[in-house]
Amino acid sequence: MEFVTNFLTADIRTATPLLLAALGLVFSERAGIVNIGTEGIMLIGALLGSVGAHVFAAPFMGALFAVLGGALAGYVFAFFTVTLRGNQIVVGTAFNIFALGLTTTLNRLLLAGVKSIPGYRTLAVPGLSRLPALGPILFRWSLPVYLAFLLAPLCWFALYKTNTGLKIRGVGEHPKASDTLGINVFRVRYGVLIFAGMMAGLAGSFVSMGQASTFIENMVAGKGFMAVAVCVFGNYSPLGVMLAALLFGATDALKYRLLPVVGGGYSQFLNMLPYVITVLALCVFAKRSNKPAASGVAYRKE
Amino acid sequence: MTECILRMRQITKRFGEVIANSEVNLDVEKGEAHALLGENGAGKSTLMNCLYGMYDSYEGEIYFDGKLERVSDPKRAIALGIGMVHQHFMLIPVLTVVENVVLGLKDNKELLDLRGAADKFERLGKKYNMVIDPWARVETLSVGQQQRVEILKALYRDARLLILDEPTAVLTPGEIEGLFEMIAALKNEGRTVIFISHKLNEIMRVCDRCTVLRQGRVEATVRVDEVRDREHLAALMVGREVELQTVKAPCQPGEERLVVEHLAALNDLGLPAVRDMSFAIRGGEILGICGVDGNGQSEMVQCLTGLRRTTGGRILIGGKDATGYSVRQILREGLSHIPEDRHKFGMIGAMNIEENFILVSYREELYSRRGLLNWRWIGKHSASLVDSYNVKTPTAKEEAKNLSGGNQQKMVVARELDRGPKLLIAVHPSRGLDIGATKYIQSQIIKQRDNGAAVMMVSTELDELMELSDRILVMYEGENMGVLTQGEATREKLGALMAGIRARPGA
Amino acid sequence: MGINVKKGLRSVGFPLLSILVALFLGGIILALMGYDVGAAYASQFKGAFGDANAIGETMVQMVPLIFCALSYAVAYRCGLINLGAEGQLYIGAILGALVGARVQGLPPAAHILLCLVAGFVGGGLMGCLVGALKTRFGASELITTIMLNYIAMEFVAWCVNNVPFKDLTPGAAPRMPAVLASARLPIILPGTRLHLGIVLAVVGIAGYYFFMWRTTRGYEMRVIGMNQNAGRYSGMNIRANSVLAMTIAGGYAGLAGVTQIIGLQFFLTEGFSNNFGFSGIAVALLGSCHPVGIGVSAILFGALNAGGNKMQLLASVPAASIYMIQGMIILFAISRELFLWFGKGGGRVLALARRPAKDGGGA
Questions:
Q1: Given this model, what pLDDT does residue A285 score?
Q2: For the residues A137-164, what does the mean pLDDT come to?
Q3: Phi, psi (5° rounding) for residue B383?
Q4: Mind listing the pLDDT tens digit for each residue in B258-278?
Q5: For C314-330, what is the mean pLDDT?
C-alpha cells in the first residue's frame, strides 16, 4: 500500500509542471503556434519564482513573479512569431538560448550563496487529507498541484464549449476563414501565447519552488520540451494532456522504484526513461488527428 | 432611378508594383443580381475582396446605403450586411456545420448555444430549400453542400448583399440550376446579389445588369436584357475580337501509346475515386478528359504518373505493363506531365529558372555525369529554352517566383515538352492564364500531337476541350461516362454526361 | 550554377546590424544588472582578437561551431530541422575517443582519419535514427532530436563513470581514457591551442557547398526541402533523401565532437560541449545556411565564445551571459522587417505590433 501511495505521489509531483505547461500549450498549439520556447520560459519562471520567493520571503510572490514573467515572455514570443512572422521553431530556439544566458547570469547575481528558498507550502484539505491512502495522494498538495488538475477539465470546457475556444480552434485550422468572419487572428494568437507563457512560468516556478526548493542552473532540463511532447501525446486535448502528463510522471516515479533493483551503476539509463518514452510515444501517436491544419504557419493578411 | 445599395468610386488596389484594380466605379442597385464579368486575372475577385475588407488598404471610396464607409476588415463588412462566398470556401473542415456557422458571430454569448443555433440554421435551410445536417462535420459534405453552407452562413448573418465568387465552377449542371433558383428567391426578398463569373451564358440567365472588367478596369456596364450582341460583350471582356477556332490538322492516329484497363484507385480519404476506368490513346491524338472538378480526374492522373497506388486494373505504356511503376520508371517510358497545380507540383519558386528546368531530367546524360551536375551545359541549354518558349525574364538565373503566372506556366511547359514526350499528360494547362499565354500553350500541345505524341488533356473548360481534343472522355464520380469524338461533342451532350446522365445505355 | 557567392556575402551584411543591436541590448541588460559594460566588452574583444593567442582561441571555438552549423544547414536544406546536434556531437565524440584511445600502432594520419570516420559514424547513426523515426512513424524530428540530446548526455555520464569505458587511471576525474598521441590533431599556430580542426572545418564547408550545389543528390535534397511535392512529382525518393540528410547532418555534428576531443581536450568528460549544438544553429541561421555565410558568422560566434571566457576572468561577468546575446542575434537576424519598420518611425511600429503589415507580400 505504501508503495502505491509513494508511487502515485511521485507521479503527481513530476506530472504537475508538465501538465501546467502543456495546458497552456494546448491553447497555443490549437491556435496554430508551435512553441518550443516553453523550455526557456519555464526556466525564466523557475528563476523568477525563486527570486520573488527569496526577496519577499513569500512563495506567493514567487508565483506572481513567475506568472508575470511568463506572460511577458509569451508576449515577446508573439511579437516575433505573429507580428514579425518569424519561424516559430527558430524563435523558440533563440528563446531557449537567451533564457539559459539570462537565468544563469541572474542566478549568480541575485541568488549567489542562497542555499534554499521558501517553496510552495503544502495545503492539506481539512478532513479529506486524513483519509487513508486517498488522503496523501489527492489532498496533501501545494496550490499549483490542485490548480493544474482542476484546470484540466476547465480548459477542456473552455476549448470545446465556449466562444473563445471555438475561435481558437478556428484560427488554428484555417486562419483566413476565421479572418473572413471578422475574427482578429493576431489578437487570438497573442492571447493564447500570453496564456501559455503564464502557464509555463507557473510550471517553471513549481520546478524550483515545488520540487527542488532552490534554483539550479538549467534545472528545467528538457521539461519544457517534454511538455510539448505531452501536448502531442495528449492529442492537443486538455484531458488527454492530463493523462499523458500522468503517464510521463509515472515513468519518472518508476525510475526511483527501479533504482535499487538495477543498481547505482545504471542510474543513467533510468534517467533516460522519460526521454525514451517521449520518443516512443511520438512514434505511436504521431498520426493522431487533432493537430491543427495551420500549425506552425504564420498568418499573413493580404 | 432605382436606389443603389452600393457605389464604389475610383477604387484602386495595388500589390507592390502590380495594379490589380484601377479607378473602378461600380453601382449596384438594391434587389438586383449584378454580374462581374471578366477573364481570369481581370481583377473581379480583388475588387470584391476590397469591398469585403480582406485588404486593409485601398484607394477610392465605398458608399453603402448611401453612406461613405471605410471597409478595412471583414468585421465591418459583415456589420454592414455584406456576405461573401469565396471561390475557395472559407469553411473549417474539421468543425461541424453549426460550429462553422456561429464562428465569429458578434453576438455570441461566451457560453455557446449550439443547439439554438442549429435550430435557427435548419429553419433558414428549409426556407431556401437547402436542407443540411447542422451536426455534420464539414469535411464529410460534398462540394455542392459546402457551397450551400457558405451561402446559409452569410444569410445567417443577415447579409443584404451577397457576393458569389465563381460559384458555378464547382457545380454540376443540375446543382447550377438549384443555385439559380436560390438567387431568384433572394432577389424576391429584396436582397442583392453580386455574381462573379467569366461565363457569358450563366450571366445572361440570372443577372439583371453586368459590369465587364478587363485588366483591372471597367470596360462597360450594361443591362443584360438589352444585350443584343453577345459577341460584343465577349470582345469587351477579352479586349479584342474572339479568335476563331484554333487551326488544327486532321488527326492521324498511330499505334496505341497508353492503354488503361479497368483502372481503380482510392482518394486520400480512402474512398473509391476511380472506378473501372478503361480507355486508350494513340500516338498523334488528343484525348480530352472532361468533368466537374473532383470527379476522380486528379486521382486518375496521379495513377498514370506513378504518384498514386492503383487498387485494380492495368496501365500499359507503349505496350508494356506499367502498373505499379514508380514515377521514375514512368518518366523513363517517355512521359511528360504538366501538373494541375504548378505551384504545388510543377515548380520551386525559390529556385532559379535553370534549376527548375532540370527538375525532371537532372539525372540524364548531358545534364549530369556520375552524380555531378553539368551547370555549364545546363546554363546554355536553359538560355535556349527561355528563348524558344518565349519565357519573359531578364535571365535564366531569375528566381521562378518572380515570374508572372503565364511565364511560370511557360517555363513548366518548356521543361516538359523539351523532353520530346511519347506521352503527354496535361492537366488544366491554361488555368488562370490570359488569352495570349493560353493560345500559345495550346498551340504547343497541338504541335506535340502533330509530332506523334499521345496527349491526354484534363480540363474543366468545355470550350478548350471541344477546340483541342480529337476525342473527349467524360468522367463522373470516377467512371467513364462515354467517349465522344470532336464532331459528336456538343455542350448539351457533355453537360448531361458530366451530370451523370448517360446518353444511351452501355455507351 | 546554383549558388551565388555575392548573395552569400550580402546575406551577411544585414545580420551585422542585428549583431550590433543584440550587443547594444545585451549591454543595457548587463548595465541594469550592475556590471561594467565597457570593461566587459573590452575584455570580450581582447579575448577574441587581442593577440595571436586570442585569435587562436577564437578559431578554436569556430571549429565545433562550423560543424554544428553545417549539421543544421544540411538538414534544413532538405526541409528538416535538426535540433539534435548536441547529442550527435556527444555520440560522435564517444566513438572518436574510443578509437583514439583503443586502436594502437597506426601512423598519425591514418589514426586521425579513423577517428574522424568514427566520429562521423557516431553522429551519423544518431541522425539516421531520427530520419528513420520520422519517415517510418512520422515522429516529428523537432522533439525526437531534443529527446535524443538528453539520452546522449545520460549515456556520456554513464560512459565516463563506468567500466568498460571510464578512465581507470588512479585518481582520475570521471572521464574516458586519453586519446593516444598518434590520434591527436597537430597544432597549426605554435604557441596557441589552434589545431588542424579549423582546416577540417573549412574543408567541411567546401564539402557542404560541393554536395548541395554540384551533385544530383544535393539537388534532390534542395528540391525536397523547398517543395516536397515537386520532389515526388519528379520521382525523387523523399524518405531516402530525408534519412540520408539527417545522417549527414548527424555526421557533421559528430565531427564537431571528435575534433574537439582529438584536437583540444584529449579526454572525454561530461558536459565538455559548450552548448555548441545550439550555438551552431545560431551560426547557421545568421549565415542563412549559406556556405560563405556560415563561415563568416562562425567567426563572430567563435569570438563571442572566446571573449566570453576572458570576460568572466577579467570583468567577472558570467560567461553564460553571451547566450543572451546569441539568442538576441538569432531573433533579430530573422526579423528583417523589424528594422524596416524602425526605419519608418517608431509610431508605425507600435501600430503594426497590434496588427501586422498586410501589404508586404501580395496575393
A1: 76
A2: 92
A3: -60, -40
A4: 999 999 999 887 788 999 999
A5: 89
Q: Name the maximum alpha-carbon separation found in chain C.
A: 70
Q: What is the 3-state secondary structure (H, E, C) of B153-198?
A: HHHHCCCCEEEEECHHHHCCHHHHHHHHHHHHHHHHCCCEEEEEEC
Q: Is A272 helix (H, G, I), strand (E, B) or coil?
A: helix
Tell me the pTM: 0.87
Neighbours of chain A (3+ CB pairs under 8 A): B, C
Q: Looking at the DSSP assignment, which residues form a beta bridge with residue B263?
A: B277
Phi/psi zone of residue B66: left (φ > 0), alpha (ψ -120 to 50 degrees), beta?
left
Which of A137-141, C144-148, C232-236, C252-256 has the largest mean confidence? C252-256
Q: How far apart are CA A42 and CA A39, in angstroms?
A: 5
What is the number of domains present in chain B? 3
Element (H, E) at B45: helix B44-51
Would residue B424 count as lying in a domain? no
Partner-chain contact B90 A177, CB within 8 Å: yes
Do the domain assignments include residue C49?
yes
Shared domain for B264 and B354, answered yes or no, is no
Residues of C in contact with A272 (CB under 8 A): 150-151, 154-155
Q: What chains are in contact with B, requiring at least 3 Cβ pairs below 8 Å?
A: A, C
Domain final position from B238, B259, B283: B238
Confidence band for C13, pLDDT divided at 50, 70 and 90? low
User: How far does B146 lie from chain A, in Å, by closest CA?
Assistant: 14
Q: Report the distance separating Cα B506 and Cα B492, nearest Å.
A: 19
Residues of A in contact with B109 (CB under 8 A): 163
Domain that holds residue C331: 5-341
Whether A138 maps to a domain, the answer reads: yes
Residue B363 inside a domain? The answer is yes
Whose cell is 583514439? That residue is C100
pLDDT tens digits, one per residue of C205-231:
999 999 999 999 999 999 999 999 999
**Do residues B225 and B164 both lie within one domain?**
yes
Average pLDDT over residues C152-176: 90
Claim to verify: residue B472 and residue B490 sit in the same structural domain? yes
Please check whether residue C347 lies inside any domain of the structure: no
At B330, which CATH number? 3.40.50.300
CATH number, domain at C41?
1.10.3470
Same domain, B139 and B20: yes
Grid coordinates standing for A218?
Answer: 538549467
Domain count within chain A: 1
Give B103's strand partners.
none
Domain boundaries, position B33? 4-238
Contacts with B102 from chain A: Cβ below 8 Å: 166
Same-domain check for residues B381 and B315: no
CB contact under 8 A, B328 and C235: yes
CB atoms within 10 A of CB C173: 11
- Provide the domain limits for residue A100: 2-112+127-285
For chains A and B, CB pairs below 8 A equal 75
Task: Name the closest residue on chain A to residue C285, using Cα atoms.
Answer: A90
Distance, in Å, from the CA atom of C140 to the CA atom of A291, rounded to the nearest integer, reads: 12
pLDDT in tens, B3-49: 899 999 999 998 876 788 999 999 999 999 999 988 767 888 899 99
Q: Which of A161, A163, A170 sits opposite B92 (nearest CB)?
A: A170
Write out residues 76-95 of B within 8 Å (CB-CB) of A: 78-79, 84, 86, 89-95
Q: Are A186 and A179 in contact (CB under 8 A)?
A: no
The three cell numbers locating residue B334: 517517355
The CATH number given to whatever domain includes residue A149 is 1.10.3470
Q: Is the CB of residue C210 less than 8 Å away from at least one CB of chain B?
A: no
The answer to whether residues B213 and B180 belong to one domain is: yes
Confidence bin at C359 (pLDDT 50/70/90)? very low
Domain co-membership, B88 together with B135: yes
Q: Structurally, how many domains does chain C consist of?
A: 1
Whether residue A302 lies inside any domain: the answer is no
